[in-house]
Amino acid sequence: MKVIKNYIYNMSYQVLLIIVPLVTMPYISRVLGPHGLGVYAYTNSIISYFVLLANLGIDAYGSRQIAYVREDSEKRSQVFWEITILKIFTTTVSCLLLLLYLPFAGDLRTLMLAQALSLVAVMFDMSWYFVGIEDFQKSVTRNVLIKLASLVLIFIFVKHATDTLIYVIITSGSSLAGNAALIPFLKKEIQEIPFSHLNVKKHFLPALLLFIPQIGMQLYLVANKTILGLMDTVTAVGFFSSADSIVRLGMTVVSAISTALSPRISHLIAEKKNSSVERYMKEAFEIINGIAIPLALGLMIVATKFVPIFFGPGYGAVAKLIVIESPAIIVISWSVAITSQYLIPADMTHEYIWSTVIGALSNIAFNYLLILKFGVYGTVYATLLSEGLVVSYLIFCIRKRLHIRKVFFFEFYKFILAGFAMTAVVYYLDLRLPATIFAIVIEILAGMLSYGLLLWLLRTNVVINIRSFFQEEI
Q: FRET partner for 103 with CA separation of 20 to 30 A, picked from 202, 267, 320, 363?
């Protein structure tokens, strides 16, 4: 039962991180407008580089190291203190670099200072420890309260187009409050270790090796907004950011299974249970394919009705961007699953680094080439092309370690058949129903029902054995 609990908790937490902005977005998009939303997205993309430096790959590395020693309280405590001290140091360095950057921020200096709250929050982020011990409940419970509080504050204090600064303070401040709120839970988990017994330096290089691919990952997750802001307008950034948020919500739901399984697979690899690793990978990809395919197809159909209702007038371009970007749900879900479920647990750092280098360089190149010709649509094309290259390389890397057809494509044709059948049902309803929230809900429910029914009629393995997959203990 632990896997299903971790999946539910992690999925809830990951979705919450995007759901709160999405709940507020219909309000914020109308109050701040495309320009204000674009300014927020642009400054957020810049602060993300400093947050990346502060993290230094520590979250991925730390959770893996904790998973390795989770049964030994003393070793676990020592690893915790060593990594925490390292994180305090890297965050301090990043804050100093931000101070050096601020004179060049121009009119955005005040907003950058407000965004810096999310940088300070890195120092207090202990979620990597709880991921390592497979305890997702504490972080989820506390963060739900913090995020709900931020939701209330946004509706109370953000009232005018000039309130972008207030919006930034609330969103960045909630990250700081949420991370700090986890610290009291550590009291019963961690022992005091004499400072002389700690060896912080030994973690620097391994964390740095995981930091290198995260640089690449950040470049093709955030750099597109930065480049778009430089080559086009902040309004275009607002359009792309809005579309990207919707698409990544779908990816979050799917990739939660990867994060939940990562510590479990790390434990299996440490015990050299290779057959169990491949079995878990295969069953996880059945679930990922079974969710990602209908999400991508369904989003493409309902986007045209959804966007005007959700974002309000003036966001017509967002619907087209969502339609184009929707296939990324499938591609990126695969990349996340391969990376978090296998590459990082198996210590394939070299391959991980190269995958992100390929993604970063190709994304930057495609953005510069395609934005010039297609504007904001070029950013979406660049995302699809670069992510396609990344997942192709990742599959190439593990082709000799895992049975590719068995793991990735088991009963794949059934998901495709059911997905297209669902698309036909939703499209038929979409043509005949009015553009209302009620109509969209009807289309979604009809799509879920038709898709699930066809998977059941096809006797799809994931439908038949989903319960046993989550309940089985190692």
A: 363
Mean pLDDT computed over 195-223: 76
Is the CA virtual torsion 215, 208, 338, 473 positive or negative?
Answer: negative
The per-residue pLDDT for range 387-427, each reduced to its tens digit, is 999 999 998 988 887 777 877 777 888 999 999 999 999 99
Let me know: does 305 contact 430? Beta carbons within 8 Å: yes
Summarize pLDDT for 417-446 with one digit per residue, the tens. Answer: 999 999 999 999 999 998 888 999 999 999
Rounded CA-CA distance 265/3 in Å is: 11
Quick one: pLDDT at residue 473? 44
For the segment 42-50, the average pLDDT, to the nearest whole number, is 89
Nearest to residue 294, comparing CAs of 402, 449, 131?
Answer: 449
Q: In this structure, what is the dihedral angle of CA atoms 175, 176, 177, 182, given to the nearest 10 degrees?
A: 90
Cα three-residue angle 352-79-120, rounded to 5 degrees: 75
Give the SS3 label for residue 46: helix
Coil vs helix vs strand at 424: helix
Task: State the Cα–Cα distance between residues 311 and 151, nearest whole angstrom.
Answer: 17
Least Cα distance to 263 among 72, 135, 398 occurs for 135
DSSP 151-203: HHHHHHH--STT-HHHHHHHHHHHHHHHHHTTGGGGTTT-----GGG---HHH
Per-residue DSSP letters for 112-139? HHHHHHHHHHHHT--HHHHHHTT--HHH
Is the dihedral angle over the CA atoms 448, 18, 239, 382 positive or is it negative? negative
Reported for 436-445, long-range contacts at CB under 8 A and 24+ positions apart, including other chains, are 436/309, 437/309, 439/305, 440/302, 440/305, 440/306, 440/309, 443/301, 443/302, 444/298, 444/302
| Lowest-confidence region among 11-20, 32-41, 67-76, 427-436 | 11-20
138 residue type, one letter = K
Please provide the size of the chain in residues.
474
Residue whose entry in the numeric block shows the structure tokens 């070793």:
75
Which residue do the tokens 């399984």 mark? 261
Cα distance between residue 116 and residue 48, in whole Å: 9
Looking up tokens 């750092």 gives: 349
Single-letter amino acid code for the residue at 134? E
Rounded to 5, what percent of the chain is helix, strand, coil? 85, 0, 15
Helix (H) or strand (E) holding 92: helix 73-101
Count CA atoms within 13 Å of residue 391 on its CB side: 17
* The pair of three-digit structure tokens given for residue 299, joined into one six-digit string: 């989003």
